Amino acid sequence: MGDGQKRFYYWAMAPAVLLVVVFFVLPLLQVLWLSVSEPTLGLQNYAALIDNPLLHRVWLNTIRVCALTTLIALTAGYPVAYAMAQVGEQHRTLMIFCIVLTFWLSVLIRAFAWVMILRTEGVLNSALLCLGLVDQPVRLVRNEIGVLIGMAHYMLPIAVLPMYSSMQAIPRTYVDAARGLGARAWQTFFWVYLPLSKPGIIAASVLVFIFSLGFFITPAILGGGRVVMIAEYIRVSFDETLRWGYATMLASTLLIALSLGLALVARTINVQKVFGA
Amino acid sequence: MTGHNFWPRLRWTLLLAGAWSVLGFLVVPMLIVVPVSLTDRNYLSLPEHSLSLRHYATFLANPLWFASTLQSLLIAAVSAAASVFLGALCAIGCWRLSNGWSAAVRLLMLAPLIVPTVIQGLAMYRLWAAAGLYDTYAGVVLAHTITGIPYVIITVSASLAGFDVRLEQAARGLGASALDTIRLVVIPAVVPGLISGGVFAFIHSFDELVIVLFITSREIKTLPKRIWDGLQDRIDPTIAAVSVVLIVATLLLLLADAWIRRRRAQRRSIAAGPIAIEPQGRAA
């Protein structure tokens, strides 16, 4: 390829790159800078990480909810991905459509629908009362159960798709060979299929955990202010206190935690591939 | 049924039942908004005496809901178009160069997907306020263009993965300019990626709430922002009606996208048929 031609393709990339650098990267750098310079230069904002018990609780909530969400989404998603990799063409199209539709449905509407179902006067509680399974309504929303249900619902498609694409690449002959050599069904699954689908499982956990960490709308609506996670806490401290040093410190901590996490897993997996490009 | 066949079949049935229960958990709860939207009460409930369309009427007739819908449509259309234009150029550049730089660029362009939106909103707020973009259409369009680009990069890159670089080289070799090559050879080959990227960027913008909460106040009140406000204080069934409309719209958009891509794939396989056969014929 000639130099002129090369230059042309560099110019093609330039507008998007420029836009993202100026309006995305620079503001992020400013957040990092403000966290150590507002109100005065130094790490005093970060002292809250050590001596603020409220912040400890927020981080513990965040990590617990994210870990549980990842666990639920992966356990429920694995059989779906497995079935998708085995069924016929039309059946698979239908399954994929269910997943893609849910993936693109408004987060707000999904949280709203769950409030309708889970609240004390909601559909589920009415049904339980009618059937006489409970004497009084069960609290399912404005607590961690509600948040977990909403988050798992949001993250399931994100868990299924990478697992499915890694299972698709497993040659059917491997399974047949294992069976032919005398392995039982469960042995074939645990010793052959599961290890082969491990890249998909890892990719799915990384994606789900990372997206959960920064999640805001679902916990805010289904947690009703009782299960405050780090993203909601950042929003609240921006809205109510306007203490820029504190808010940017929280954001920087989350950003750094995310980058460290990604850097750690980047040793074992291709991060770029996980995100689809 | 023979004993030999019984266990595999049972396992398979159980697996399918499990998979479909999970898919049911995904889809069925979303249908609950349909009966709620048809309630005859003016509070959230299932219909008591009769079905009523009054909440749909409220949604359509109320100037506030109407203005929000229009705002959201406008912002989503403009920012999706901008995302497609910028993202496609960038993806094509990355694909053709494919060196260390382009790999770094692609990772950079995906960053808006990875960085939590709360951090993006917080970061944008200061710059947007300083640049006079706070609470303006231009400000929201700019934010949504940037956050929509990753979807276009992903879909266009996927389309390019199946495109033969030699076609581009052939066009150049036959004397087409770089611009003409992109316009007449590369772009037509990635149309499905452009369409999907546009649809995804549109849905993304139409749906985006968190950044909007940070960079707007009174002037801009997109549909998600109005729903959010509604959920914060008194929830009324209009939100259920809005939800049904949005679910149907999402469904139609995705179906249209799938349909267009499928039709193209069919046409392409028919058109490609004779070309693929020709060299073999000659060899024989």
* Residues in helix, % of chain B: over 70%
Largest interface (C-beta under 8 Å)? A-B, 83 and 90 residues
What radius of gyration of chain A results from the CA coordinates?
23 Å
- The residue fraction in helices of chain A comes out at over 70%
**Oligomeric status:** heterodimer
Tell me the CATH superfamily of the largest domain in chain A. MetI-like
* Contiguous uncertain segments of 5+ residues of chain A: none
Strand content of chain A: under 5%
SS field, number of helical segments of chain B: 13
Structural summary, described in words:
The complex is a heterodimer of chains A (277) and B (284). Chain A has two domains: 1-37; 51-274, MetI-like fold (Orthogonal Bundle). Chain A has 277 residues and is an all-alpha fold. Chain A contains 14 helices and no strands. Chain B has a domain at 69-233: MetI-like fold. In chain B, helix 10 (191-207) runs antiparallel to helix 13 (238-283). At the A-B interface, helix 1, helix 3, helix 4, helix 5 and helix 7 of A face helix 1, helix 4, helix 5, helix 6 and helix 7 of B.
What's the helix and strand layout?
The complex is a heterodimer of chains A (about 280) and B (about 280).
Chain A: H1 3-37, H2 48-51, H3 53-86, H4 89-104, H5 107-118, H6 123-130, H7 144-168, H8 172-180, H9 185-196, H10 198-213, H11 217-223, H12 230-241, H13 244-266, H14 271-274
Helix pairs in contact in A: 1-13, 3-4, 3-7, 3-10, 4-7, 5-7, 5-11, 7-10, 7-11, 8-9, 12-13
Chain B: H1 3-27, H2 33-37, H3 54-61, H4 63-97, H5 100-114, H6 117-130, H7 137-161, H8 165-173, H9 178-189, H10 191-207, H11 210-215, H12 223-232, H13 238-283
